[in-house]
Amino acid sequence: MQKYTDYRPNVAAIILSSEYPKKCEFMLSRRNGMKRGWQFPQGGIDEGESTVEALMRELKEEIGTNEVEILGEYPEWITYDFPKSSKDKRYPYRGQTQKYYLVRLRESARIDLFAHEIPEFEEYRFVGFEELFKRATFLKRRAYRRVIAYFKKEGIL
Question: How far apart (Å, rounded) are the C-alpha atoms in residues 104 and 106?
Fold first, then answer.
């Protein structure tokens, strides 16, 4: 049996379109080969990297641009376990602990899901609140609701 360490430190970006606040739409991306794998971009934090540095690197790698304006940072880390069926396939971790940021794309940003050698996503779309929670992968929905509710309460969203 494989031994797991605790949780992989990770950042996640809730991306608003460049039309925000005139129009409130969130960017969701679908993972390669996963029909229902719609989620926000996210990724691990490298040793010695700040969460903002990791955020900017991951955005560049996953969506081809880090031309964003940071609107807010969720004050806590959100931790979740990987599904039991995927634990042995992913990493030597039980799950992930994530720092969430709310960002807005700059008008000059150009999304390119294939900018990185091995693309993580194969499709993206901008969706409103209702579609966001219908489309987002089930594993992520609770965290997404929590973080978005916080940004709404704080008047950032």
Answer: 6
Q: How is residue 136 annotated by DSSP? A: B
What is the CATH classification number for the domain harbouring 60? 3.90.79.10
In the chain, % helix, strand, coil (3-state, to 5) comes to: 25, 35, 40
CA distances, 47 to each of 6, 10, 51, 74, 134 (Å):
16, 11, 11, 21, 35
Pairing of strands 26-31, 121-127: antiparallel
Number of domains in the chain: 1
Distance, C-alpha 88 to centroid of its chain: 22
Range of the domain at 21: 5-153
pLDDT by residue, tens only, the chain of 157 residues: 344 468 999 999 999 999 999 999 999 999 999 999 999 999 999 999 999 999 999 999 999 999 999 999 999 999 988 887 654 455 678 889 999 999 999 999 999 999 988 899 999 999 999 999 999 999 899 999 999 999 999 999 9
Rg of the chain in Å (alpha carbons): 15
